[in-house]
Amino acid sequence: MRRKLAAGNWKMNGxxxxxxxxxxxxxxHSGAISExxxxxxxxxLHRASEFTKTGPITLGAQDCHKRESGAHTGDISAxxxxxxxxxxVILGHSERRTExxxxxxxxxxxxxxxxxxxxxxxxxxxxxxxxxEADNTLDIIGGQLAGSIPDDISGETLVVAYxxxxxxxxxxxxxxAQISEVHDFIRARLAKRFGPQVARSIRLLYGGSVxxxxxxxxxxxxxxxxxxxxGASLTAQDFSPIIAALDAx
Length: 249
Fold this sequence. Notes:
The chain is α/β, with parallel strands linked by helices. It is built from 11 helices and 8 strands.
């Protein structure tokens, strides 16, 4: 049975003053059924780990380098993230792919490094609006699945997040039928590549304007095992109802 996952991506938000949100979230969900993960900026990882040593919340990072160490000014390795308290790392987010020109092979290399270090990986994929309108969504997702995910994965180490780029932070959400179609497609492709048993163990998240008002409907979709949440994860007040909806699904 796949354990549901509510993953919060703080992106480039948060200072020490915001660590209380993690503490409040942990207190509110001490008996959570779902797993809860928060990915704060790298600057807060070590301090945030003080609030997550016990309790329901695990920590993730928002990116890592594909090398273990070296002359890579401004970058951070998977080993460093593990040392700072992270258990997960988010890779291939559309904002990394577009703003930093990351491609599938870059994501794959980072995933290999993260897995070697002992981190679990959340690999993101999604289509642009024009690709959706041209009915190319499944082709895009299929290519990203093939190119971004390394061969040596399992349900314990890999989470796949579908985030249509046109829905991230825009308030626009795909229809339930569209979400269902993509998640079913991802599961089928994973089964074809890794076998049905492994595919059934991999959690699939939906991301893109997930809010308390639409969470329950999204979580009722087959093959949606949780959410990767951006803006609504920044405060316990906004994220808590999403977690509650996931627990109830």
